[in-house]
Amino acid sequence: MEHEFWHKRWANQEIGFHEGTVNQFLRDHWSLMVSNNDDGVLVPLCGKSHDMWWLNDLGHPVIGVELSDIACKDFFAESEEKATVHPGEPFNKYRHDSLELWCGDFFQLVPDDLKNVRLVYDRAALIALPPAMRKTYVEHLTAILPDGSHILLITLDYNSEEMQGPPFNVSDAEVRALFGEDYDVEQLLKQDMARDNPFAKRRGLRSGATESVFRLSKL
């Protein structure tokens, strides 16, 4: 997917993927990820997710990576918090204490950028990417993460004939195929989304959908 696709979505406020509240799966399962609240957290393709404030409030330094400058500005404006902006290449960095939003292309991250990161929260990155890009995303994420890092991954699976992504459907089998070589893959939850769920109804998912939560530990 081209950058222009996402820039247009944010410019037109076509952001149905934005939850507006802290994700319940994050609340329920984050304690299984953490041994030290000082560990840095990477949130790829973060948008303006409230989850980042929640993680930061626990004590984690947070780096969110987001392509859209609109999303980065809205994140702080809607929280009535100020950020200092540090222009640069390949990222413009918005900083508020130990929470940073890096505005730019996720694929420009290098290992040195994440030397203090041990945790990743992926609710909306993998499922935002079409099948052709997901392997590239996982390969790049694996290349830049320190060994021993852990990922909390949330996925969505549905009948692709009933809805066109994003968010795209990602099966449990695909998660294991993508991550299984370099990570210990543990499924923490698999839960059916009711057909009368507002998201399912809005997107025409007559057969419903399944949400899964994984803990991935880099070998």
From TrEMBL:
Entries under Gene3D superfamilies matching the protein: Vaccinia Virus protein VP39
Superkingdom: Bacteria
Catalytic activity: S-adenosyl-L-methionine + a thiopurine = S-adenosyl-L-homocysteine + a thiopurine S-methylether
Amino-acid positions noted as binding S-adenosyl-L-methionine in the UniProt annotation, renumbered to this chain: 10, 45, 66, 123
Keyword Cytoplasm: yes
E.C. number: 2.1.1.67
Broad EC category: transferase
Family, similarity comment: Belongs to the class I-like SAM-binding methyltransferase superfamily. TPMT family.
Places the protein is found: Cytoplasm
InterPro entries, per database record: SAM-dependent_MTases_sf (IPR029063), Thiopur_S-MeTfrase_Se/Te_detox (IPR022474), Thiopurine_S-MeTrfase (IPR025835), TPMT (IPR008854)
First-listed, main subcellular location of the protein, grouped into a coarse class: cytoplasm
Name of the gene: tpm
GO MF term (any one): thiopurine S-methyltransferase activity
Name assigned to this protein: Thiopurine S-methyltransferase
Gene Ontology CC entries for this record: cytoplasm
One Pfam short name: TPMT
Keyword Transferase attributed: yes
GO biological process: methylation; response to metal ion
Keywords of the record: Cytoplasm, Methyltransferase, S-adenosyl-L-methionine, Transferase
